[in-house]
Amino acid sequence: MRSRSNSGVRLDGYARLVQQTILCYQNPVTGLLSASHEQKDAWVRDNIYSILAVWGLGMAYRKNADRDEDKAKAYELEQNVVKLMRGLLQCMMRQVHKVEKFKHTQSTKDSLHAKYNTATCSTVVGDDQWGHLQVDATSLFLLFLAQMTASGLRIIFTLDEVAFVQNLVFYIEAAYKVADYGMWERGDKTNQGIPELNASSVGMAKAALEAIDELDLFGAHGGRKSVIHVLPDDVEHCQSILFSMLPRASTSKEIDAGLLSIISFPAFAVEDMNLVNVTKNEIISKLQGRYGCCRFLRDGYKTPREDPNRLHYDPAELKLFENIECEWPVFWTYFIIDGVFNGDAVQVQEYREALEGILIRGKNGIHLVPELYAIPPNKVDEEYKNPHTVDRVPLGKLPHLWGQSLYILSSLLAEGFLATGEIDPLNRRFSTSVKPDVVVQVTVLAENNLIKDLLRKHGVNVQSIADIHPIRVQPGRILSHIYAKLGRNKNMKLSGRPYRHIGVLGTSKLYVIRNQIFTFTPQFTDQHHFYLALDNEMIVEMLRIELAYLCTCWRMTGRPTLTFPITHTMLTNDGSDIHSAVLSTIRKLEDGYFGGARVKLGSLSEFLTTSFYTYLTFLDPDCDEKLFNDDSEGSFSPDSDLGGYLEDTYNQVTESEDELDQYINHLLQSTSSKCYLPPLSKKTEDSHVFSAIHSTRDILSVMAKAKGLEIPFVPMTLPTKVLSTHRKSLNLVDSPQPLLNKAPEDDFQWPRDDHGDVDCDKLVEQLKDCSNLQDQADILYILYVIKGPSWDTNLSGQHGVTVHNLLSELYGKAGLNQEWGLIRYISGLLRKKVEVLAEACTDLLSHQKQLTVGLPPEPREKTISAPLPPEELTKLIYEASGQDISIAVLTQEIVVYLAMYVRAQPSLFVEMLRLRIGLIIQVMATELARSLNCSGEEASESLMNLSPFDMKNLLHHILSGKEFGVERSGFDGRSGFFACCSSDGHSLTHSLDACGARAVWQVLFQVLETEHWSGQTRLSSNGVLRPIHSSTSSPAISIHEVGHTGVTKTERSGINRLRSEMKQLFSVSQAVASSAHSSKSARSSTPSSPTGTSSSDSGGHHIGWGERQGQWLRRRRLDGAINRVPVGFYQKVWKILQKCHGLSIDGYVLPSSTTREMTPQEIKFAVHVESVLNRVPQPEYRQLLVEAIMVLTLLSDTEMNSIGGIIHVDQIVQMANQLFLQDQMSIGATDTLEKDQVTGICHFFYDSAPSGAYGTMTYLTKAVASHLQELLPNSGCQMQ
Known about the structure:
Blueprint (H helix, E strand, L loop, with lengths): L5 H16 L19 E3 H21 L3 H26 L2 H10 L9 E3 L17 H16 L8 H14 L26 H14 L19 H14 L14 H4 L9 H15 L42 H13 L2 H12 L3 E2 L5 E2 L3 E3 L5 H6 L7 E3 L5 H14 L5 H4 L16 E7 L2 H9 L5 E2 L7 E4 H8 L4 E2 L4 E2 L8 H4 L2 E4 L2 E6 L14 H18 L7 E6 L13 H12 L1 E2 L2 E5 L11 E3 L43 H11 L26 H12 L17 H4 L31 H9 L4 H15 L15 H14 L3 H10 L7 H10 L3 E4 L8 E3 L5 H11 L4 H20 L9 E3 H15 L4 H9 L3 H13 L3 E8 L4 E7 L4 E6 L44 E2 L10 H5 L1 H20 L1 H9 L10 E2 L5 E2 L1 H4 L2 H11 L7 H9 L4 E4 L2 E4 L2 H4 L5 H11 L5 H15 L12 E3 H18 L16 H4 L9 H16 L9
């Protein structure tokens, strides 16, 4: 007999350990592992982690086998693994109805269960009796299903099981927006059953999606039908959200030891090594103890102070658990494995030695890993006084199977029995490796030969869509329909992937469908859904963003290939040439760089060998799934008059279309519409249906009376100055404007029937001969109000021509004419919604940015704090907009732009927690009214007429704090141009369009963040720039730059510069505390100077009062509207709350007990503070309150232990305002200084810089000292 090698003996020892501590709990029928001999339930997550030691030991035996018995042992161990994985699969497949339902609802009640009966695979508790929704557990199953399959195990047997796994992918692909209960099954750490977005769930889902993508579940024995498909954009969503969350674990947990499984084995989900190290160091510094790591701060599980008779905690009870949290040895096993993967022998040795010291010796001397170590009840007070000094005792399960398994696995790795690549065959460990630069392949295709010829005139040679046959080109929405068939299975009643938007990563691959190569155009070029794609400058901007996104986020082999179509909508107004913005973009693409992205421009045939391919074999003819098996096919698509690339292009190639061609044509034709309205006349002097002296608002006023409708005036032709009345209900501009006189009803030339009512049939007849866009809109709106959108007009004797159809056609015409106000309004009437609205909202929420829509206060302003289904989200926006459909549409637009920026420039949002869309829109209109010196009506109207590109740029300037001026460079008849000169010297050029004979010409604009006063620039008699209808240029009008005072965010807050000044003032306040007389003396001895004298800014420039007037009021209004606060603001508020009983803000108290529930770094605490501040409706007043709180937070740096009572922040601001007024009157100001009617604050105080003798911080500091005098003990505490 051959003697056993030393390695064989060691493996036999581990085999006995595995058998006695893990496999003894495995059910022989189902293969599931019970949690212990007492707890017979099988948890999904625990089962997977517990079987890893068995999997690793099996591979170790196979690699180190020196006897036949070793090979048999390896096979036996591997089959134990297969049995368990198939047992979990059976548990989930019995809940297939939940998988199907959850894909659409993402409700906690529709989720897969977290634990099952070990003997029967059945459920053990009700849907609402446990925190079942744990996305990380399902993701962990898929991750190791992929890893184990790649290692050679055969776990999936049939195509039905493949379809189920594909639907599990759909189950977890939206993890980035699903609030669940997390690794510890409790959600929010108060343990009250509140789900929250968990970084551990998002990270594990990302890892699982990446691991299982393009994996053949049948291994070496499979084919393309057993391959799993994952949409790369879902992976990237998870990646970006995870990056934004870490090192935070969730809104209620500022750090969690469970993140070790995300930053290292098994997920390796984080690609930024710096972020990995930051998260790891946070865990070590905040959670590590002598016996392992706490799960999270203030974790009450099994602590002596936890009440075992209650499942939940009282909020203030969490403070009791601080410093006595139980410590879990399992987390040290993660550190050992992490050290092995990183080649850090010192880390491996340190944690192995530490772990050996806390293991429990069982029978026969085997090592057991306990669940946790807890403080003995009689030593709690001692541990409070001296943390990490009391000896702890083991509690909970012994062994803890999860920890026991990872202990054995880490030992096998550390001792060399396993290589890292054997337990990570899919190479996830290389996620932090440097990736090569991505070159994006761009192919430009002309829609037809006409466009192809126009491009050739400019020296740009491209192919048309017909030229590239047999390669097929389709819009991106068709790919969404195709993917909706992936994973369908009649046997299990699985519907496949829900119809969802597919991002640019998905459309940048080439697809092989039924042996034909397809390329899909990005959805941002699709004019089918929303009007953003009607703006050529916006398309170019979105192309720039998406190319940069591709360069950053592309992870697949091969290069991304983006197909950019040049369509008839990208021509000039007369159709004679290519739009200049599109043409210049093509020029930049030819240079090889565009927007910071490396690009290669070429024909599609050149890129066939370097592109990434996906084979969609589920559409093959021999598959059970048929293309036309659903009667409702095509019903997912919204109505539009702008279709895609119809397949008649290819009729020249084949006479008989196959089923795929028919299916694609069916989808395209279901979203196209016919033309019914008469063509528009290009003449500006066309006669109108109604008298020119009457406005559309007058028409609607009479219509409302005629119908007895209690509706606000909702004008149709937005380009006219009378069309903002319906917006006035939102008070976009704070200055009230007089209403225009309404014309008497009898003056209107209405077509009447015999009964004197409005004759709708005659209106339809007039519509036939109406060639003016505005009049067509007027008539259709009247029909919309009277008859409704479904009324059949029988226009030109054709049946089925509804008002809705005609509005859709009018929408297309308005798009071609760039009538943005009209486009937005018709979009509202048609209830169009941005297809990516829900995704955009989710992006913002997942980056920890809450949203509010509508204007304050509540309940009109509605908060969005969790992802909502698209229909519910749209309904909420319309409700918050007061049924003002233009504002509702604009709100959607702003949300999309914010989402673009939060993905591309997250630094813009660092100091913002809640984005108030209503206030942002209000600030846009207010800034316009002041900078152009126009009325509120005209400002609101001009805002609605901005092109999407201009609107997006305006929003960016407000967010970023850039200062720039407006100048007019000239007009050329129908279209004019003006330029916005930013402070960095660049110029942005935009065009003006005529809006009809009745319409008032409006100027597209860029608003100054730094306002200019009416005395500096007078634009026109009524404050609006007017185009000149001549070929000569109009006189140039420019608004010049006004210095660089307080441009940076730090300077705006005024905190850092004034820290030393305020400390000096606090030193003075020691004398204030001693006597009231000295307080008055201190206030009167402040140096004074005339208001008109100049003061110095941070850059050394001297700016007179007249030049600086209005700057700081605007800055406070802007910062208050976007909820910008200084860095570290919430943490400083937490500290000051520990020294007082609470902060009173506008009548609402933020109690000090909040700190007993929440820790300073929690987003939950920041949200709580924001909810109090947001009760203040005036943004500039809110910002003064923030400044006052920042002065108060300086007390947290002093040695003062306690202040005592409740600090009334609004009283401090009012007192500071009074001190300011006293000083102003002492130097000659009158007592009639203008004040805010609501708050009583002087406008000049709002407009004061933070620093200086008359700065707000000076007076706020004095007010704080005076206010605290009433709260401090009589003995007088000195502030250091």
